[in-house]
């Protein structure tokens, strides 16, 4: 996928623009410059300003007095829901050297039967 990072540094501050496919983040410490950048982009493209960044590409963004906190909690829960593994028990990893594959003790403890779903989930994890 296409991704690009642009920066503009001036005496007023810095403006950072991150583009990933059709998603964009505009940030920095030059508030006037950021507003001017948004106004210019709106004059050239059809864009929707979603306001303060809260979620981007599976990453939740939370602000506090201490700074930014980034989390993929929601993304992880969504993946677990998609695979039906939300209530699954945690497993020790990495596996022991002598580990032997075992039969599932119950039907809820099955590995992925669907190779297509397995590939899709692995792709989302990378």
UniProtKB/TrEMBL annotation:
InterPro entries: DNA/RNA_pol_sf, RVT_2. Pfam families: RVT_2 (PF07727). It comes from the Eukaryota. Signal peptide: none annotated. Residues 3-96 form the Reverse transcriptase Ty1/copia-type domain. This is Putative mitochondrial protein. It comes from Noccaea caerulescens (Alpine penny-cress).
